[in-house]
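Could you join me in thinking about how sequence relates to backbone shape in a protein? Would you write everything just below, so we can both look at the same thing?
***
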Amino acid sequence: MKNWKHFNIEQRKIISSGISHNKLLVEIAGEIDVDPTSISKEVKRNRISTTDSINDCPTLNRWPYVCNNCKKRYSCVGYKKYKYDPIKADEFAREKLINSRKGIDLNEEEFNKLDNIIKQGVDNKKSIYQIVVENKNIINKSTTTIYRYINNNYLTIKRYELPYAIKYKKRKHNKKYDYSNNEIDRTNHTYIDYLSYIKKHPNSNVWQLDFLGAIKTDSKAIISLIFPDLHFTLIDIINKPNSSKVVDFFDMLEENLGTQTFVDLFGVILTDRDPCFTDINGICFSKITGEERCKIFFCDPYVSNQKPHVENMNKTLRKFYPKGKSIDNFSRKKVKKDNITILNTPIKSLDGFTPKEAFIKVYDEELFNKIIL
């Protein structure tokens, strides 16, 4: 027998024809390759009454449960009559299926517990996926079901409270960002050079680098460095950022990790043409050994999709650092705490593992503790 599936209209027509021709239940089951019990349930479930009588005919207690081929169906008086119509049966079945998937399949206690868990999770800036994964022993519902509950206004949390759930408005493009460093010589460091290098060195670790946009009056900025393969993100806050401060950021990483580990881990840096990333030699060469420690390449102007992973991470960072709000009052301790929160967030494309778990699995916990400082 095949795995159970809902009956389709063609199968229901075969059932109706079999009943009209007085076929045995097992014969009809053999024709459509389903269990006989499934057919008997289908007929009883979707048969329709053709009279107003309240008394059931005794013969309707056994197969075929309907009067389609009964010899007394016209002369029988005083009994409720049933017939099996394949088209009507198909309509009833579809309607029941739709209705069965509406509403909430929970009692009041279970619903209140679910509502509280989702509310607390969203208030703590967690995604619905993360909430479901972290509470999988309590929440016996899929991520899709939870989103449906929210969209249908069953839960306390509303759709507009979810990150990116509201449609974006069309952006106003008054002018393009003005790069004041177009005169920098990026020969051998362009995006085409990057593609060429990766073609020749396919096993290189590629990290994407960016600054989170800040308001003009801020003196601080959030730098983000992401390893897309593991969704592993490093963020830090830099006061009065410039090219020298960015070099210091990489020097600190090398000092914590050791030169050889830094070289092995940070093979390639892909970034945009921000003025703070102009010290190519400072980023690429070690102050300890004087030798090259990494490669850096720059995306083409105004083509942010050449480094999509760090751009998407910036959206995640907005949950902690809202657009249009100052970050000058944030400390490095606070930023590092947020970094740990991000690294402990389950990722669907990592099969529910967190970036921290993935990094430790690929490398080790000692290296994780060094890189996160």
In short: The radius of gyration is 32 Å. The chain has three domains: 9-100, 108-161, 191-371.
